[in-house]
Amino acid sequence: MSTAAGAADATTPGSGPRVVAIGETMAMMRSGTIGSLAHLPSVDISLGGAESNLAIGLRRLDVPVAWVSRVGDDPLGTRVTREIRAEGVEVHCAIDPTRPTGLMVKSRPTGTTTRVDYYRAGSAASALTADDLPAGLIEQADILHLSGITPLLSPTAHATNVAAVRRAAAAGTLVSLDVNYRSRLGSREHLAELLGEILEHVDVLFGGPEELSILAPGVAEDDHRGLLRSLAVDGRQVVAKLGADGGAALVGAGTAPAHGGAGPAGGGTAPACGEAGPGGGGTAPADPEIIVAPGHRVDVVDTVGAGDAFVAGYLSAQLDGLDVPARLARANACGALACTTPGDWEGAPRLRDLDAVLAGGGADPVSR
To answer: Measured by CB atoms within 10 angstroms of the end CB, which terminus of the chain is less buried, N or C?
Structure first.
């Protein structure tokens, strides 16, 4: 059994959330210094989860957003819901009295590497069911956002994703999916099978080439254009995140579904972050149908969560009705700025933070 985590907080007076994100958020223990956890004397406590990272990123960009999940009846669960609610996100979270809140441990064994260990087997969020989806929430939103993490948590969590997508499709709510493959949760083949049950309803698809290739059998991982063309069908936007090399996007031929308030169909992307490359902006590739963008040059501190900030930037720009180059520019700036701060979500920028990056063209987004 579970109980609701209190009444949900409204993100904007008189207005419901425009985006609904569903997925697990874990408590996080992270080291503040470089070295093995076998020797470090202390850790900091925070939280992290792809869907809540995205929700916080959207809220900081003035998009009303709701997050749906489950946590345990424990201090870490209290911390998770409190922190997300404090960011202005509308929280719909069941409290499970028998299962714990998931935990991740993040460390920097060396100055150039990051290690993340998960302790989420049997967690409260792994027991997600369709009953955890509030009535009317998805139907009233512009976008439902999911990741490939949730279906690998458990059969019931997968069924929850499927139920949410069916509700979105029936209501005309746009569906966004970030593949976000986690090899420790399951095989590529298993994830392909699970996501295959909802792929036909996905309107905006995000992923790195190695992730997109999971859904495009027969297309080589390094054939970026082939991956985009294989997956961009029936008006779907496919956004390939290429790290320091930038990003690419393609809008499939056909009629894109009409989703009220979500802005015109179109796609564009930029990398989550990059230490090298030109200072942002879009360029026209040889193939005029594919939109590409290089990365911003930043001093990278922590790349974890930068991809979620990137997706938040892209979706917020689409909700604002911006065209493809502008969506791409905002996404690129959000991901780059997120790389300059420790933590999975703490560095997600606000609109005012993006001004210097977007107005500066090739300027370094870091103030020195």
So the answer is: C
